[in-house]
Design a protein that fits this description.
The protein is mostly helical. The protein contains six helices and two strands. It has two domains: 112 residues, Orthogonal Bundle (Arc Repressor Mutant, subunit A); 31 residues. The longest helix has 28 residues.
Length: 156
């Protein structure tokens, strides 16, 4: 079977997303270094901050597209370093909620401010309509990937 033009272009997009992911992680690591935050730790702090304090490790993993094990590893480090703390989950004793500590709240605010400067610099020369179109395309691709993963699980 011959690959379609669309499949070739989609493959190019996949490869570009891999490259961009690596650069985003490197940039995030540099941005967070002075705050003792890696990109992965920043990602988990963001998930907790956005959840209004009622998120478990599986919830963090789902929000951020991480494995549960990956999320748990970062949660353990963040808790050990005083950025987050556990709260009892009345529905599930073995899956506590995590919330930001005052240190975590301050660090998240600081890295968010650094991110704003970085994002503004990166967005220079790009326009909102093309960014919206790119976001729309990536969202549609993400939905197809999620549907594909669900279908594969159902076939097992």
């Amino acid at each position: 079977m011959k690959r379609t033009i669309e499949a070739d272009l989609l493959t190019d997009i996949m490869l570009m997303v891999f490259r961009i992911n690596g650069r985003l992680l490197d940039g995030g690591d540099r941005l967070g270094a002075s705050l003792n935050l890696t990109s992965a730790r920043w990602q988990v702090l963001g998930a907790i901050s956005l959840s209004s304090g009622h998120v478990t490790v599986p919830g963090i993993a789902e929000m951020m597209g991480m494995t549960r094990q990956g999320a748990q590893k970062q949660v353990n480090k963040l808790e050990e370093d005083g950025f987050i703390e556990k709260q009892a989950n009345p529905r599930h004793q073995r899956s506590p909620f995590y919330v930001l500590t005052p240190q975590g709240t301050e660090s998240y605010a600081r890295i968010s401010a650094l991110h704003t400067g970085w994002a503004n610099a990166l967005a220079g020369g790009l326009n909102a309509p093309e960014l919206r179109a790119a976001l729309d395309l990536l969202n549609r691709f993400d939905q197809r990937l999620a549907l594909d993963a669900t279908e594969r699980e159902e076939q097992r």
